[in-house]
Design goal:
This is MYD88 protein. The structure is a single chain. The protein is α/β, with parallel strands linked by helices. Helix content is about 45%, strand content about 10%. Helix 1 packs antiparallel against helix 6 and helix 9 packs parallel to helix 10.
Length: about 250
Amino acid sequence: MAAFDGKDAVDFDSIPVAALNVDVRNRLGLYLNPRNVVAADWTAFAEETDLSYLEIRNYEKYENPTRKILDDWPSRCSDATVGRLLNILAKVERQDIVEDLRPSIGNIPETFDAFICYCQNDIEFVHEMIRQLEQTQYKLKLCVFDRDVLPGTCVWTISSELIENRCKRMVVVISDDYLESEECDFQTKFALSLSPGARSKRLIPVKYKTMKKKFPNILRFLTLCDYTNPCTKSWFWGRLAKALSLP
């Protein structure tokens, strides 16, 4: 990529802009928010994110338009990554910003609102979860193993790292097939092995279809999100999103 050379260890094109912390976002605003006739400002950045003239005019009402554009960008574009951001800054000749932010973003570990524990036979429901929680007003970040983990990594090692250190919570998609999955069994038991204070808010079991087998005993002490209940289905996604959004 244009902004950083091959010496950088981080693949910025794989990191969503949502991973940028508050300090980095605020610093971007300090650089880009002031209208500038000499250097590119937030409007030039906005144009490069494919916003139209009228859309850019509507961002003028915000006190921090740069921050608002960064917040909205992932819902508009699939390539809203740190790599794309750095390339845009280089393209509009704001290398000064790139150099200033380099120490802050050089080692960003991607973090997520939730790790989704599921078996392959339940992948269609996981796709629906992505549509309902990531691509709507909730704008949550889900860690879906088949999508977000590169091939060749050790399943057990990367699962443990993600669950313990990089995901705020863990959604367990319960089904008859889940009960037969060694990988799901490991992920669930690992999450439960964490400190009692952490595990009480980490695990959220979700049942999305009827089951023939007995519900797992190790999850019975946790409140279930039941997609199969017609009485509560209308607020299922909002309820789940709220639980995943809690601090």
